[in-house]
Amino acid sequence: MLVKDFDHIVFTVNNIQESIDFYTTNLGFKHLEFKADIDKDVDPLRVRNALVFGNKKINLHQRHKEMDPFAQTPTVGSQDLCFILSDDLTVDQAINQLTYKGIETFGHSNKPGSMGLIESFYIRDPDGNLLEFAKYL
To answer: Which of 27, 51, 69, 117 has the fewest CB within 10 Å, making it most exposed?
Structure first.
């Protein structure tokens, strides 16, 4: 197989600061701000933003100001991701934490994951991306 893992994904968002606030405040992600490596095709002064969790990150691109190279059709709200919950949280605890913060949860069910059966639920971020949170059973 050619691929072992992935390093990052990119979300095109309407408002970078709103996304940073949502993911850091509600989900505990870390915000990373960095400049591009100096490269003839990249503006070295342009600041990039990422949301870090575990050993992965979500790079944020501002709608209509995407960083080169970018997807053929960058679209706000088109992502659908499944995150594995922290070991110290049950699905019910995660649902309660998010509900307490005013975030609507839905779709609580059991289903096949990539490595076995999962219990999961969904939320949407400010751009409408579908975020699933799961625990292996």
So the answer is: 69
Q: Give residue-wise pLDDT tens across range 65-104.
A: 877 778 888 899 999 999 999 999 999 999 999 999 999 9
Does residue 132 carry a catalytic annotation?
A: yes
Task: For the chain, give every domain's residue range.
Answer: 1-74, 77-137
Domain 1-74's class?
A: alpha beta
Q: Which long-range contacts (C-beta less than 8 Å, at least 24 apart) are formed by 109-118?
A: 110/137, 113/82, 118/82
The residue written with tokens 């400010």 in the block is: 126
**CA-closest candidate to residue 21, choices 101, 106, 78:** 101
Task: Please report which helix (H) or strand (E) contains residue 97, including its range.
Answer: helix 91-100
Q: What is the pTM of this model?
A: 0.90
